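Below is a filled-in request sheet from our internal design queue. Each sheet records the structural input a requester submitted and the sequence that came back. We keep these sheets so that new team members can see what a complete request looks like end to end.

REQUESTER: design group, bay 2
PRIORITY: normal
MODE: inverse folding
CHAIN LENGTH: 149
BACKBONE (tokenized):
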């Protein structure tokens, strides 16, 4: 279902694309939610753990940029992951105001077991597109995502 807005063709087209993109994201994410829920994690918690797992320890500001969340939200998410024993903050010895977030051994086990399940779900969902379509849409989505830096 597209927009019912009766604006200019440019406005109607942009709104229709926005609606389709939003529904697509919600559809794909809802397919991941049961797996994450069974693992006891939110999408943001998974995003933080996955980022650290693949990129290494980083500060909360970097994590916020990686998963597109505010600094305040990241603090809460990291606090909750720390309470669960999945991450720990390590203060910089030279600048005690600066700390990096690291996976604990428990967190590393959790994400290493969960990540393949999430990848499988994503691959299944992306199977609605051919490999050619997936390759074609990637640069388009990247361009759209980088539109307002």
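RETURNED SEQUENCE:
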């Amino acid at each position: 279902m597209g927009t019912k807005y009766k604006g200019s063709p440019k406005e109607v087209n942009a709104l229709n694309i926005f609606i389709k993109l939003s529904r697509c994201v919600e559809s794909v994410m809802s397919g991941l939610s049961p797996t994450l829920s069974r693992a006891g994690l939110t999408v943001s918690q998974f995003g933080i753990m996955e980022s650290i797992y693949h990129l290494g320890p980083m500060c909360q500001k970097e994590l916020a940029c990686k998963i597109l969340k505010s600094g305040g939200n990241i603090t809460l998410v990291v606090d909750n992951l720390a309470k669960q024993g999945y991450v720990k903050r390590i203060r910089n010895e030279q600048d005690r105001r600066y700390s990096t977030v690291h996976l604990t051994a428990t967190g590393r086990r959790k994400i290493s077991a969960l990540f393949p399940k999430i990848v499988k779900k994503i691959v299944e969902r992306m199977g609605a597109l051919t490999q050619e379509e997936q390759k074609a849409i990637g640069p388009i989505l990247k361009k759209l995502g980088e539109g307002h830096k």
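SHEET NOTES:
- Helices lie at 9-38, 43-55, 60-67, 71-83, 105-126, 131-145.
- The beta strands are 87-91, 99-103.
FILED BY: M.R.
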